[in-house]
Amino acid sequence: MTLTTAYWCVLIAALLPYVWVAIAKGGGPRYNNRDPRGWMDRQEDPRTRRANAAHANAFEAFAPFAAGVVMAQLAGVAEARIAGLALAFTAFRLLHGLFYLADKHLLRTLSWFGGLLCVLALLVMAALQVGR
C-alpha cells in the first residue's frame, strides 16, 4: 500500500457527504432547490432525515481525517500505516452512513467510533514522529 491509496481514500471520504444527501433528496416528496434547508426541515420520512444526518456527519468527519493523512505524511509516518488507517477510516465511514440509513444506531455508533480511532491514530503517529 502506498500514499496513493490514502489519497484515494481522502477523495472517497470527500464524496461521501454527497452520496448521503443525494439519497436524502431523492427519498421524500419532490425536492425544492429554492429552499433546500426549509425543504429538509419539513420532511417527516425518517429515512430521509437519517440520510441528511449522515450527510452532515460525513462533512464533520472529513476535515480531521484529511488533516490526519496530510500530517502523517508530512511527519514521515510509514506509508503502509497511513494507507491502512485511511482504508479502515473509509470503510468505517461507509458503514456509518449505511447503518444510519438502516437505523442501526448501535452499529452506527461503533462505526463512528472506529473512524474516530483511525483519525486519532493518524494524528498521534504524526505527533510522535515529529517528536523524535
Automatic annotation (TrEMBL):
Signal peptide: none annotated. InterPro entries: MAPEG-like_dom_sf (IPR023352), Membr-assoc_MAPEG (IPR001129). The chain crosses the membrane at residues 6-24, 82-102, 109-130. PANTHER family: BLR7753 PROTEIN, INNER MEMBRANE PROTEIN. GO terms for cellular component: membrane. Its main location: membrane. It comes from the Bacteria. This is MAPEG family protein. It is found in: Membrane. It holds the Pfam family MAPEG. Keywords: Membrane, Transmembrane, Transmembrane helix.
